[in-house]
Design a protein that fits this description.
The chain is α/β, with parallel strands linked by helices. It has eight helices and 14 strands. The strands form three sheets. A nine-stranded mixed beta sheet has the order 8-7-6-9-10-11-12-13-14. Strands 2-5-4 form a three-stranded mixed beta sheet. It is elongated and about 160 Å long.
Amino acid sequence: MRPLKSSMRIDPAPSRWSYRMQRWLLTPALRKSLRAGLPVLVIVGLVAGFLGSAERRADVVLAVQEMRRQIETRPEFMVNLLAVEGASPAVETEIRELFPNDLPASSFDVDLAAIREMIAGLPAVAGVSVRLRQGGVLVAQVTERQPVAIWRTRGGLSLLDAEGVAIGPVIYRADRPDLPVIAGPGANEAVEEALALLTVLSPIAERVRGLVRVGERRWDVVLDRGQRLLLPEHGARPALERVIVLAELQDLLERDLDVVDMRLPTRPTIRLSEHAISELWRITQTSTGQTTGTGE
């Protein structure tokens, strides 16, 4: 007996979800991502499996470090010499003592910015440029501060540049006889004015012993033979010029006096030395005695 055939026919069309899945699998974006993504996933899985061992990870790190060392220590990357240009022997010696690297060294280990900052921090250095030159030479081009005066303080003698920056110490005054001496608190902040006054003093430069800053506001000029010129807070240069004119025309500074006080420019005063006062007193007494005797 034959089985009865079902009167219902199966629909060959896919279901809605099956249709959407097939369309999604056929999209270009998914096909490209599967084409590229699956190999990447496989590679990542293999690498992760390989690096799963701590010993293998250490071997990889050592291999990378060795490869980097071989590259960095190639001859074309090595710094073999430090050249200091434009610096005095003392400053060059100080730079070499502070240089942070032992040469030869890889240029990858040499921090040019740090070296530049280190050299620029030296008191005697006004400016510096650092560069690598062919042949493995590190060049430091230094511009030094030029001393223009000696500053005498309780702590000793120091060299000052035109900006009043202390460059370095001086052991003895005789070490720099070419530089003038200034003293007193705040003298380093008025170097420019001091230099201008020294220019006015050029006619009697051989007699000038130095300038003293008084109260951080005005100057005294110290001459030989213990003479002193007291200058005003304002208008010091014109007042000093008047003294120089009087010295040239009337030999003012050749007289027996200790102080020429110009603090009041309209009323300059002088202070005689003790010897001059004694002589003046003796002459006055003698003249008085003679007059009295003549009257009798």
